[in-house]
Structures are given as structure tokens and as C-alpha cells.
Inverse folding.
């Protein structure tokens, strides 16, 4: 590991300075620091630095501060240490919370979509009813006009028939009257 990659052991982070030559992957009780790693990176800390492969060196350089970090040895058993593992736990909790919120929002969206579809179907049904009612109204207006015309015709015919009837009655009365 390079000096740049060992910044997790610097004075600002742990309150102590360790020369790169004194960095150990397998620490002892006398070391001032220990490693805290995610379970999938624990294999990196089972061999001494000098026994690691090139790929392990690359992995150590790439993952320092990401999947493992140095912590003060007095803090190694204390889970309240604010290090990357604590941050990861907080992020996992936050992820779960956000996932739950997303699922709730998905459910709300699904319900809203159902309501929207139902409203659109109802609007379409009402539109069909309105169109049907307009057609029925138009037919009724045509029927009313036809009936009005028929009533007018029948009224005229009745008036003419009544006048003719009256005229015939008058003639009949004149013919039957003795003085005619």
C-alpha cells in the first residue's frame, strides 16, 4: 500500500501517526490501531502484507476507507465508533426506510392510477350517455314537429269538415222547413 492509501491511519483520523513501514494487516494487542472490515473483505487481513498477492495489494489500495478502515485499537470493540461500518449501517437503515417509502409511493400511485382509470371510464360512459341523450332529444324534437304538423293538419281538416257539416245541416234545415 502507498502512503496515499494509508491516510486512514493518519493523525487526523485516529489521533496518531504510524509510519508506512509499521503498518500491519494482522494487528496485535500492542498495536495502536486495528482493522474494521466488511465480512467479504476479512480475507485480506488473514495474511501479512508481505505474503499478499499483487491482486490483494490492488484490492487493499482500492478498498481502503471503502470496505475496511483502521480504527483506534481502544475503539475496536466499540460499535459506536463513527467509521465506515457505522456509516454503512446507517445507510442500510436509510436504504430500508427509502425502500419502504418507495413501496408506499408505488402503492399510492397504483391506487391513483386505478382511480384515474375508473374516472376516465365513467367520463366516457357519461359522454356516451350524453351523446345518446342528444340523439334521443333530436329524434323527440323531430317527432314533436311531426305531431305538431299532424295536429295542425287535423285541426284544419276538422275546421273544414265542421264548416261543411254546418253548411249541410243549414241546407237540411232549410229544406225541411215549411216556409222554404
Amino acid at each position: 500500500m502507498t502512503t496515499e492509501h494509508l491516510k486512514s491511519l493518519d493523525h487526523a483520523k485516529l489521533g496518531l501517526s504510524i509510519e508506512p513501514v509499521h503498518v500491519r494487516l494482522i494487528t496485535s494487542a500492542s498495536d495502536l490501531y486495528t482493522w474494521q472490515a466488511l465480512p467479504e473483505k476479512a480475507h485480506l487481513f488473514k495474511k501479512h502484507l508481505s505474503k499478499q498477492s499483487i491482486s490483494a495489494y490492488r484490492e487493499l489500495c482500492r478498498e481502503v476507507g471503502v470496505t475496511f478502515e483502521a480504527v483506534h485499537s481502544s475503539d475496536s470493540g466499540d460499535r459506536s465508533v463513527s467509521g465506515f461500518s457505522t456509516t454503512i449501517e446507517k445507510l442500510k437503515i436509510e436504504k430500508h426506510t427509502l425502500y419502504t417509502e418507495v413501496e408506499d409511493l408505488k402503492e399510492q400511485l397504483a391506487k391513483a392510477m386505478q382511480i384515474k382509470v375508473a374516472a376516465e371510464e365513467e367520463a366516457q360512459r357519461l359522454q356516451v350517455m350524453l351523446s345518446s341523450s342528444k340523439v334521443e332529444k333530436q329524434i323527440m324534437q323531430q317527432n314533436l314537429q311531426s305531431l305538431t304538423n299532424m295536429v295542425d293538419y287535423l285541426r284544419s281538416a276538422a275546421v273544414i269538415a265542421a264548416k261543411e257539416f254546418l253548411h249541410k245541416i243549414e241546407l237540411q234545415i232549410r229544406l225541411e222547413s215549411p216556409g222554404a
